[in-house]
């Protein structure tokens, strides 16, 4: 018997499929084995497609079959058959996605059991905390959910379409307005420019951006190579203004800072100060330089307004997780997967087929493989 097959019998796979990146690894480990883009190359058209761009249930099923195959047989190097898996997902994940993923894992890959965990809740296991406000700023949206005594307070959730996707669009608009001569850059390039060249500026400097004659000196410009030979100039103004879209209030006076305070407003009075002093930021977007310091400034600014005076919050504190923020939720899933909760709360293959009335599941699996 191969060595990797012997070792795989003791491993529990932990999977966190994000809109932009997927984290894949094993419980009991301190970091994922791989962090890859949530995309696959379509066999029929030979084009790369993102998982979130599925057209219908069947299209999503086909994309997930190919994607899970890559994860197991390229990175894990063992078969998923009769193995358990822990899936970490957002509480706001579409039901269609959750059910299709379960169908792929149980019917096509014949896993033994699956444990689905909410990302906001399991992130707190990395801190050994049971009460905190978790803000997840990902690719498509930012979601804030308070967790009190180990239970997510669903009625207090807040969400806004503020994430990396909005930042990339803002960066594209800023570059076009400066007549750089480069239009419609690929999103991978926009992401690279954002990570390498941009940062979150201070609140006092941001207030100067709207003035006709700002009294500040912008950050130095940088050169960014395009296509190997061409170069574009990223001005200091662009470098500092890219992330401002996260802190500017929209027509409803909503932004990242108001999301957090609105979520706190919807919980019991005796928990408000405790949540304000236990804020956990997760998601790849929050790893931007200056993000946490600027968010703290914005929170204190909002607390001075009449809208949030009744909160009576004087102190705002952030947790530092024991890992990078982009895979904090994955690490929490790995902790849960190493406990007895996996056997107690998991959905087994037999129960899945019984509840879905799939008595003839072997033939159904073969038919799906022949599609």
Give a description of the structure.
- The protein is α+β, with helices and mostly antiparallel strands and 371 residues long.
- The protein has a six-stranded mixed beta sheet, sandwiched between helices.
- The longest helix is centred in the N-terminal third of the chain and has 20 residues.
- The protein starts with a helix and ends with a helix.
Strand order of the largest sheet: 3-2-1-6-7-15
Mean pLDDT, to the nearest integer, reads 89
Radius of gyration: 23 Å
Summarize the main sheet: 6 strands, mixed
Q: Give me the secondary-structure category.
A: alpha+beta
Which spans of ≥5 residues are poorly predicted at pLDDT below 50?
1-7, 366-371
Termini, distance in Å? 32 Å
What is the H/E string? HEEEEEHEHEHEEEEHHHEEHHHEHHHEHH
The percent of residues in helical segments reads: 25-40%
* Number of strand segments: 15
Gross morphology? globular
Total of helices: 15
Strand content: 15-25%
Summarize the structure.
This protein is an alpha+beta fold and about 375 residues long. Helix content is about 40%, strand content about 20%.
